[in-house]
Input
Amino acid sequence: MMIRPFPPGVHGPSQTRSKLTGFGTQLREKQKAKRIYGLMERQFSSYVEKAASAKGNTAELLQQFLELRLDNVVYRLGLAESRQQARQLVGHGHVLVNGKKLDIPSYQVGINDTISFDSVGAAAVQKRAEAVAKQDRPAWLSLDTKAMKATIVSKPNNKEIEFGFDITPIIEYYSR
Output
């Protein structure tokens, strides 16, 4: 199969695609970030507003807010194969934070919080135990694989985290 550098159809090879405008690139990056974290517009924009109103670098704060969501932490620990699966684990109430059952995926985890699982969640996580042991984790998370308990060691460092999007156009989009 040959992949051609133009779209299919009668309009394909003769016309060139127009370049994306500044607004278009900002919108595309925002949509990418929303889809990666599984957020709706209102929730995402409230994170941006919260980051903008807090003291410090808005881009770094926004990344920290997104990374410290409970569903994302479960995903980053490698205890779920995808963010959607991590969200389901949390939403069904299988995750305990500091010994208390939590079923809110958007819960902001803090430093020194411990994350563990109830019996059903532990069984689900044990299925991934071998993959979890081999997987690299961010430095801001520590995991005891025998007890299946995790601790938030520090706030996420933006240099450690690989994002599939650029955060600067998102801040520019919301600052209009």
